[in-house]
Amino acid sequence: MKRLTLRLGLLLVGFNLAVGLLTFFWTPHDPGAMIGGRLSPPSWTHWAGTDRLGRDFLSQVMVGARIALLVGAGATLLGGAVGISLGVLAAYARRGLDDAFAAALDILIAFPTLLLAMLVVAASETASLGTAILAIGLAMSAIIARLARILTKRVLAQDYVTAARCSGLSWARLTRTHVLPNILPTLAVALAAQFGLAVIAEASLSYLGLGAPPPNASWGTLLQQAQSTVHRAPIGVILPGLALVSLVLGINFLADGLRDLLDPEREGAE
Length: 270
Known about the structure:
CATH superfamily: MetI-like
CATH topology: MetI-like fold
Strand content: under 5%
Largest sheet: none
Radius of gyration: 22 Å
Distance between the termini: 10 Å
């Protein structure tokens, strides 16, 4: 079962990644060109039909995969870098400062990631791909920071780490040789799960008009544009919806597979 989950995750994520990379070199038609009739049904010329402006719908959905992966990867890298750095530093801090930091993280985590991302986008006053990455990355960094802090404090409480500190090992070397190797496997699983949440957050922001502006064909934008024509052209909702579900489901399968591989105790329990 562990292998099957991992393989399904790799298959679904790999397919979306291949489609996203392919759009850098080829799409069936120019995603922004109005070359067909409005809301044309699927045909040999337009395999998934056209949207309300006469643009090839399959080409737009393919570009949406690229945008989802770019935002998801960028936000996860940013959130991971900021969160891990802050979490490790907080674990080394004095008790008063550490407690204040923990309380601040609890307050931030109490707010939904999407709400925090919306506040960041609103503060920037301009919606763009970079703004979406920044907003989602900063919003998820609080969750990663809290986990990194807990894991680091757990490692620092170990006897071998105490011995290393008493021997005069510098904080930087202690972090590099003992802390990071012990916390990164668990954080990798958490970051994989956050990747899926980042993809959903990007689609949600785009649906609300706060994501990447046109001509970027985000899946959330496609869903928002198709809601008024869903009865006439249901494929406009079905195709980007299935694409979004396939990527998020693949990421979740991949995260579960990584968790099982990196947790021998869980494997033994099953």
